[in-house]
Write a sequence for this structure.
């Protein structure tokens, strides 16, 4: 948070400095290097920051905890052994919080005149705040972003409060996105939906359902409300929200970048491969590189550190069947498949018979999204009313959320599913229930809590 505070102060002084510029100084301002930020440039920055956050090392750690992948070399071994490195948290934290700050500044500076920009920024803000609270539990929010006013040690908000704040952000976003009175509206500066406010509104409702489901162990949980939100949310794969990437230098996604720079550090896990029935599941050759392994997926076996197995495949921008890396692969952030899994779980908790239809539709949507081709074949697993439970829904959701393992990690902590064996190489006897407090926070912010990895986040209690 220390770095965040300094950045907050710097931005505040930047805007103050703009007010002191004399009109005659404009003669010396290049139109290619404007002094003032625009909502368009800030939105693009917020989206790129969000892509970085939701593809970050924190996400890879979740994929290792959930045995989607295995960390077999270098700094990836520590998460494999359930001991993530405290100092590594600084990088993730210091990407999430500046991104949220930029989202806040869009609302503060342009929200009144351009509510559509504020609406998109609020959705992005909610995504990043959700990542932070999922991984660390209590986090700064109401007391954050105040470095310019002298608050150098923000207090941490309880996760229960943060989850309420996420709902407030998304409610505000939905109102903003419906507002047709704007000085300017988003267009190509919105990399995700090109200013399509209807698409953003669907994402907002789906995210509301996602974070309402976090409350499944709490007395305030309301499955019917989740179904209402989903009825207004993402309704097909054409509505999916992606982190958009291109082919130019610096545009690759973080999975591809990690693969290019640290090949062999993180590889496929045999746990997920076995659960999918290897090549029985049509998603397997998209999740994993199968070409060097006899056209089957081969993963690291739990309790080993074997780099000579499959790495991830073209779905994450890894190797395709020609041995090339898909540099421009975009990564799903919120999808129709996730919405259907949420719907299936809500229906199952309400004992609605529609749960099995939802579950099969969710698997179908996932296969179609992963393979890029509408799927109408026989599903890898035959689900009926008799074998559709919260357990099987979360198991199948885990297989589908390969690109978004934070969702699986959150589901695992609140439901206990999927059932995973502990790594015999683990330095502790349980999968960590959170990430450690970032080192900079622990050493510079006296208000930072330092719970042990054994302490569950609030929604998992």
């Amino acid at each position: 948070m220390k770095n965040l505070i300094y950045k907050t102060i710097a931005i505040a002084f930047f805007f103050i400095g703009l007010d002191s510029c004399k009109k005659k100084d404009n003669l010396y301002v290049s139109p290619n290097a404007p002094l003032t930020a625009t909502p368009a440039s800030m939105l693009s920055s917020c989206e790129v920051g969000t892509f970085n956050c939701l593809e970050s090392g924190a996400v890879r750690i979740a994929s290792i905890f959930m045995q989607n992948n295995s960390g077999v070399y270098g700094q990836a071994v520590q998460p494999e052994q359930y001991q993530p490195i405290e100092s590594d948290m600084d990088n993730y934290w210091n990407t999430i919080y500046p991104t949220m700050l930029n989202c806040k500044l869009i609302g503060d500076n342009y929200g009144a005149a351009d509510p559509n920009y504020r609406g998109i920024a609020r959705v992005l803000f909610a995504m990043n705040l959700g990542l932070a609270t999922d991984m660390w539990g209590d986090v700064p929010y109401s007391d954050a972003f105040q470095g310019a006013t002298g608050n150098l040690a923000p207090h941490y908000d309880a996760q229960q409060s943060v989850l309420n704040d996420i709902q407030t952000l998304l409610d505000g976003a939905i109102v903003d996105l419906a507002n047709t009175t704007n000085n300017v509206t988003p267009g190509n500066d919105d990399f995700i939906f090109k200013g399509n406010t209807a698409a953003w509104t669907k994402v907002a409702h789906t995210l509301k359902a996602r974070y309402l489901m976090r409350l499944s162990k709490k007395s305030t949980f309301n499955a019917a409300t989740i179904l209402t939100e989903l009825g207004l949310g993402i309704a097909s794969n054409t509505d999916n929200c992606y982190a958009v990437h291109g082919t130019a230098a610096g545009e690759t996604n973080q999975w591809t970048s990690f693969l290019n720079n640290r090949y062999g550090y993180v590889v496929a896990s045999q746990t997920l491969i076995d659960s999918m029935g290897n090549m029985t599941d049509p998603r397997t050759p998209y999740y994993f590189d199968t070409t060097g392994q006899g056209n089957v997926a081969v993963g690291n076996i739990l309790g080993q550190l074997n780099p000579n197995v499959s790495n991830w495949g073209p779905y994450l921008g890894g190797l395709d069947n020609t041995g090339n890396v898909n540099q421009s692969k975009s990564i799903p952030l919120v999808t129709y498949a996730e919405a259907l899994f949420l719907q299936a779980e809500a229906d199952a908790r309400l004992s609605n018979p529609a749960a099995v239809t939802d579950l099969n539709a969710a698997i179908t949507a996932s296969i179609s999204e992963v393979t890029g081709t509408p799927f109408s074949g026989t599903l890898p697993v035959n689900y009926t009313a008799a074998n559709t439970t919260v357990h099987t829904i979360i198991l199948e959701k885990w297989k589908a959320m390969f690109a978004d393992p934070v969702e699986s990690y959150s589901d695992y902590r609140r439901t206990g599913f999927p059932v995973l064996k502990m790594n015999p190489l683990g330095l502790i006897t349980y999968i960590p229930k959170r990430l450690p407090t970032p080192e900079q926070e622990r050493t510079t912010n006296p208000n930072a809590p330092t719970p042990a990895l054994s302490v569950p986040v609030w929604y998992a209690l």
Remarks:
- The CA atoms of residues 196 and 207 lie 17 Å apart.
- Residues 1-29 have pLDDT under 50 and may be disordered.
